[in-house]
Amino acid sequence: MGKSGCLNYATTAWESIKPDVFERRLSYRFNRNVSIFGGEVACRQRKSPIANGEGWIIDEVMALQGVPFGDRFRVQLRYRIEKSGLAHNACKCIVYVRVTWLKSTMFLERIKHNITEKFAHRMKDIFELGQREILLTPQQDIGLR
């Protein structure tokens, strides 16, 4: 994750919290290329299978510390990862971004716009990096588990 701008990336193992529902915690710092403020991230991810069993939904709730107004909102991401019909070892991932407000601010629309724009750009960079890493790796069957 260091290549994508996440410093000191740490995660717990996935733990079962209900049948077919798993949870883990993540923490890291943004480098200055990702956020001019830097900032620390603490988040929780929950993973559950898609109804047809052909992929996963990962819901992530992110708290940002050390960024302006970071105590006033949470960033929520939803990743829908499922098998692709293009190849037997391919998948597609759709990412949804949402900002949940804990406290009001007069800069609400501007902050929401900046967050969604930054995260859309960041997700594009992460997926491009992942694609390059996968293409450089010797061919093997990488399946959804």
Q: What do you see in this structure?
A:
- The protein has 145 residues and is α+β, with helices and mostly antiparallel strands.
- 20% of the residues lie in helices and 43% in strands.
- The chain has one helix at residues 108-136, and strands spanning 6-11, 15-18, 21-30, 40-49, 55-65, 73-83, 91-101.
- It starts with 5 loop residues before the first strand and ends in a 9-residue tail after the last helix.
- The mean pLDDT is 83.
Distance between the termini: 21 Å
- Shape verdict: globular
Main sheet?
7 strands, antiparallel
Strand-pairing-aware structural class = alpha+beta
What's the order of the H and E elements? Answer: EEEEEEEH
pLDDT < 50 stretches: none
Question: How much helix, percentage-wise, in residues?
Answer: 10-25%
Radius of gyration: 16 Å
Give a count of the beta strands, DSSP E runs of length 2 or more.
Answer: 7
Strand proportion, as a percent range, falls in 35-45%
Oligomeric form: single chain
Total number of helices:
1
Q: Give the mean pLDDT.
A: 83
